[in-house]
Amino acid sequence: MAKPTSRFVCQHCGAVAPKWTGRCESCGEWNSIVEEAIATRPGPAGKGAAGRRVTFVGLAGSAEPPPRYTTGIAELDRVLGGGLVPASAILVGGDPGIGKSTLLLQTAAQLAQAGRRVFYVSGEESIEQTRLRARRLGVHDAPLELAAAINLRDISASLQAAGDAALVVIDSIQTMWLDSIESAPGTVAQVRASSFELIQLAKAGNFALVLVGHVTKDGAIAGPRVLEHMVDAVLYFEGDRGHQFRILRAVKNRFGATDEIGVFEMTDRGLAEVANPSALFLAERRGNVAGSAVFAGLEGTRPVLVEVQALLSPNPSGTPRRSAIGWDGGRLPMLLAVLEARGGMRVNAMDVYLNIAGGLRVSEPAADLAVAAALVSAATEQPTDPDMVYFGEIGLSGEVRQVAQADSRLKEAAKLGFGQATLPRRVARGNRPLAPPDGLQLTEIGHISDLVARFATNSIGPT
After folding, report:
1. Statement to judge: residues 271 and 305 lie in one domain
2. Of 108, 244, 239, 105, which is closest to residue 166 (Cα–Cα)?
3. Domain total of the chain
4. Contact 366, 391 (CB under 8 A)
5. Most buried by CB count within 10 Å: which residue of 53, 111, 288, 300?
6. Spatial contact of 422 and 390, defined as CB atoms under 8 Å apart
7. pLDDT in tens, 43-79
């Protein structure tokens, strides 16, 4: 029986189907199955042909930390773990128009002005379009080498002929085309093969490679999932185009931490670094407003203070709505249930809206106490103390649990002028006592009922 010469591949998740179907069985996407030719590769001369021996070494030994190129953009260097590593591959994803190309063009210009050879290959824009953006950003004088091409063979030959590249930016990987693959640019086969060729070229040429990736409607990088496994670092550029803030977050990094973030502000001159994001996130905060609380959070090694806003509205229909922006939508109903069962509050007949101001997405459980404070404040119409910050995790039994790096959170709060902090009670388990900064008063609570008792009892909801 002859081997098949084509296969059917989902362009959304990369799953292979035996025949064409209107809907992918793996991810549920409609009209994403495309027929692709199977590339034939010459096999070994004999069926039992032997391969070369692989050299195995022991675990003992040491290696010097990899050298790095500092980009000149401190927030990007923070996320990368100190800078770009030669012979590494980085994948940058984000929504259209969020600022990926702007950030990378500024980074490439900074490195070029530092005396390193940088190549910027655009498959989506013409050279003149890129020059227009460079003039708007004020980096048009940088000795950057620019090209508009999609043929991977031509790009590979040009980079090999140069031989001394320090950074190569490919914008974007979905536009690259390899002539040995019989499919259109952007398909799973083309993205996988083009990425493999470019990564091998970066390893051999000892230059840092940055690939720009499109994202799907769910926010994940489009193309095969194996693409994220092939690269050394995966960065997501997050943010709402309605806000001026942009968050660069690492979800994978072989040369640094995966929980660091970089904060940028979009201006008419491009992306500007935000050295103190807490001050900007709280810049428009108004005190003495019910339903607002300040959370002392932690993003990687950086403490960040953000405002948590809650709004409760009566809903006589009997089907209350729960909506959360910037926080886990599944954790909000759980916390409301704990407040009702353990704290004595009644919000089951009210719509609940929660928002993390500034466009930042908070994922750590330490935000539970600040969210609870905002909800209780909104329910009782009693403002929280404008001089107070909150942090702590809440369990299903209503207990307030310890969180990591309380010292860093308190220092950030004191630096921004806050005078009080509500945090979990320290239990006698050998924990060293907290040493709060001068002028910061601590209030320790052990149960959610202690938080509710601090507010007035004139709740809006039925008792």
Report:
1. no
2. 108
3. 3
4. yes
5. 111
6. yes
7. 454 455 678 888 898 888 777 777 899 999 999 999 9
